[in-house]
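Structure, all four chains, one model.
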Amino acid sequence: MRVAVLRGVGDVAMEQRAVPSPGPGEVLVKVTAVGVCGSDTHYFDHGRIGRFVVDEPLVLGHEASGVIVAVGPGVIGRQVGQRVSIEPGRPDFTCEQCLAGRYNLCPEMRFFATPPIDGAFAEHVVVHEAMAHVVPDNVSDEAAALLEPLSVAVWAARKGAVGAGSRVLVTGAGAIGLLCVQVARALGATRIAVSDVNPARLGVASELGATDVIDARTTGLSDLGWSPTVLLECSGHPPVVAEGIRSLAAAGRAVLVGMGGDELPLPLSYVQEHEIEVTGIFRYANTWPTAIALVASGRVDLDRLVTGRFGLAQAADALTAARRDPAAIKAIVRPGS
Amino acid sequence: MRVAVLRGVGDVAMEQRAVPSPGPGEVLVKVTAVGVCGSDTHYFDHGRIGRFVVDEPLVLGHEASGVIVAVGPGVIGRQVGQRVSIEPGRPDFTCEQCLAGRYNLCPEMRFFATPPIDGAFAEHVVVHEAMAHVVPDNVSDEAAALLEPLSVAVWAARKGAVGAGSRVLVTGAGAIGLLCVQVARALGATRIAVSDVNPARLGVASELGATDVIDARTTGLSDLGWSPTVLLECSGHPPVVAEGIRSLAAAGRAVLVGMGGDELPLPLSYVQEHEIEVTGIFRYANTWPTAIALVASGRVDLDRLVTGRFGLAQAADALTAARRDPAAIKAIVRPGS
Amino acid sequence: MRVAVLRGVGDVAMEQRAVPSPGPGEVLVKVTAVGVCGSDTHYFDHGRIGRFVVDEPLVLGHEASGVIVAVGPGVIGRQVGQRVSIEPGRPDFTCEQCLAGRYNLCPEMRFFATPPIDGAFAEHVVVHEAMAHVVPDNVSDEAAALLEPLSVAVWAARKGAVGAGSRVLVTGAGAIGLLCVQVARALGATRIAVSDVNPARLGVASELGATDVIDARTTGLSDLGWSPTVLLECSGHPPVVAEGIRSLAAAGRAVLVGMGGDELPLPLSYVQEHEIEVTGIFRYANTWPTAIALVASGRVDLDRLVTGRFGLAQAADALTAARRDPAAIKAIVRPGS
Amino acid sequence: MRVAVLRGVGDVAMEQRAVPSPGPGEVLVKVTAVGVCGSDTHYFDHGRIGRFVVDEPLVLGHEASGVIVAVGPGVIGRQVGQRVSIEPGRPDFTCEQCLAGRYNLCPEMRFFATPPIDGAFAEHVVVHEAMAHVVPDNVSDEAAALLEPLSVAVWAARKGAVGAGSRVLVTGAGAIGLLCVQVARALGATRIAVSDVNPARLGVASELGATDVIDARTTGLSDLGWSPTVLLECSGHPPVVAEGIRSLAAAGRAVLVGMGGDELPLPLSYVQEHEIEVTGIFRYANTWPTAIALVASGRVDLDRLVTGRFGLAQAADALTAARRDPAAIKAIVRPGS
């Protein structure tokens, strides 16, 4: 099968590899669509993210959908022919974190496109059947791939306890921020503000349900006129994080989604006097059923985010699409085309 | 001022009373609209609800909106001229339940239209300023009145932990049931089934967001084809309650909203083996801000429920409207007309 | 190896069986101690519990400890020689309930001594390594076995949200009730009442931390003088359950631990007016680390509950010990003696 | 009556004032004991804490107990002669935060010894009856005063979700830290580590239930050997906060109790990768009933913390006692002596 491999900084090349065989409990998926994530681009540009270093060839891509073409021994819940969205992590299932329902914190997690585990820029991948989520017909292949970033937004909203009447501030209107807007709306948030420096993205945010948009080049968060109860921080910029936290209502919650380096100045006395809860998220757990239901019921529109499509051989173009077009939101690689 | 007074079973008469004066912290509200609740009709028909007995003349009506026309000493947060939705209870604010945020469980609660406390079938009422919730212009007078039953639905959904991807079963499609449908939808529930014996009401349920309707005359809950994660029980019929609980998925939650007598057969072994959580609700607490936001943002449509309008002198007609018209959902009394 | 097998009602006989081999991820445990549970005795006496029927020979016993004597392929976290407490269930680890941290609700659960799965009245058993919890030296073999019923009490307390200042009512002072007393005390409950008809057990309850004891032969729960915030119902007697719920403070929680048939009269209006939360428990999840820590730190005394010791050949005597001695609490079978 | 008044930095003087009269809902309390808090000393030394500036004479002291000697109009729940512990804040009871049970976040809060509200270094004070908590006979006057700092510890533990099996790290072994140790133990924490630079305080921590003590002059938190699940940060030193957070287990919680300036470096990537929840506390809400129950039941020993007693005229000595004696923990002012 054909695979796009990151061999070094800025160097992605096509290789031929053997189609893998599904082991016990595993399924073989023919990949139909793979979304490009900012982390893929970061590995392409820098060869590392923090402590994760690409020192051997690595297959990128962890937002993927496909069709089951073979099942391994003992698979009981999946069949050949099913269309699936891939949850790209494989925890050990039996450690204390897994048993407690926090499998995203499993110390033995093997995650797609995170060195040394290969990802989905390939014609086929193998995953555990529990991580191959069957999608209904009214969810497109590309939407099925984008259930992965939607899961990040669902998880962020859950950690932020977004619910009926929540007033949500989303800082950063990239793909994750735009998904946070949609999820917040779907969960009953009645004020949803979005800040960014990119007017095109703010326009999409409005279209997808934001009630207030803030052009961060000219306007501060304090000009909002109301106090958010939840901050979903998707920019990763330390000053934005601090300003976002300071904008929260008493007893508000801040969820740090964007990655912004190792340390962050936390406005301590504000956090204490207003009993703000601050947390960060690491991937997600138990989000796929919810994400599928949100898309299948029409509450969240994933197809709207797709702004470019590429073949496997154009993976490098897909990885760099966002820097060429400020209106780009999400590039999709289609290994079969 | 004119007041409609329940003097005995089936006997409502107009009386003249002095306009009350707002005390410290209180406001005087000129009533614009009052919804008729099933409990009002029950008092009209039977003169009692359980241990609450009408043994002196009683003013009914507890779903009310109006305009502030005077403020008492020390009122700092409300002004003459504001349009308000009335939260019809007055807790003592300082007991252990109140301080814990559960003021609905305050043992000193004085609640509208509950003997011996008068309600809102009157031209004016006095309430504490904290219970007079200012509504924005895009919320109609009648919708402002119906924020009270909406609060019941919001509270039920909160107790049921309805959220993104919840699968909700609403048993009983009266006004509260229909509001539960809308609230469940607004909070991200992706499957919402409603059962009733009245096809007209099931039609409205579909229109308001139900994904499945069950004609209980011919179809059992077990024919649903999927397991609800939340039961919002609004019928009060013991066999429906038990069947509803037995339909729940493991770890499901049942919220008993409908009143159905003193005792209920609980399917114990089902509850244990599936760790179902069962709870009942008593009015609501801290729901108005959420309810207002849901209506003002267009998530919940209260005006759609209004099926009849009556003057104060026609209060008896309003109280009996539902029995004359199976399509009736909510009668409104307008004291000013 | 020798095994005690239930061949029919009242008929337990010794058999020779091959020592099982641990499969992938499994360990072989030489059993040192097994507690006798009321459910074992119920199978012995009646051949069934509800829908679970003993229609083939069954090995009883699910409260067990032992020493690891062999490990299967791929075992990475356990070693030969470790003393372990056995968690007697084997979920599939990968279904929706398991991934959500509720593995006790796994539909594929295989549980010791529940037809057709054999239990621990045997010289050796095989379990998944994740279910073989290593215990420190200061936890005795018998205490290690009794971590299983302690887990029930920990789970009940968790479902009841027992914490600092809780006022707990435990109905039924059998082994589980007595463990609930100790757990409630360890978690900060400051009033702990226990009711039973057996004065010997009430004496033990006092010794273990109960602040009030109620002889149910002569005294009603309403004579308690204070309102519990949590009911841990361990009797399974419907009138006690109903009376217990009616004794709760507003916003109280009732956890139905004792099994008492298929249906139970629930005091509906009391539950509604006081917003009582009622739930049942089914085994436990993620309790062993807590249970071990409570025993190892001296907060809970399990050894105190042991009132009889038997060899494997005396299993029938162990199963019927409680009916011969009203002061009996927990019989232990020691397969090695 | 006699009152000790802070007139300027380092200047406390006795004054005569009229005994205040209790208004509606209020009681007059003859003060028996007042604990000295670090914040009192900070006002004495610096004339301000952050944005709170002493620019008029101020009576310090907010940890107080006494006896009711008069009741105002409408008081129904308190009587002359009752011994009470004073909760030193007066919220407005009716704002959105109060109604939600978060009265500590009430924007209209009037709090003892916080400019311009006078405190309890006086022979008499007036408080709302809801804030005068009756204590049982087995709680001493001094313990009744120290229910206030105990409330801080109870609130911290609640925010940290300390419970059975929690592994708690307390950084800073001052009065609050030592109370956190006791509360953690009372709530079922099974490992409790305390770090400080003062060996005398570490000794007291061991005596009160700490399982591990860390002399921070020589030992880092990473030498602990186990990962805490909860950090109760009572030092306010930014490097300790950051190190404490980095020591937490995945899904751990950090509660920032100590005040340490306006900003704090938060270890962002650690917080994200381990999904740590960080929050700060501001006073407390609904803690007195729990705190009283913990002391009355013997779970927490407050009297042990008292290391000095002073008359009202010796208030300045009381305020500076801690700097004269490294073994000092809590100074008490007794206005009646």
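The radius of gyration of chain D is 20 Å.
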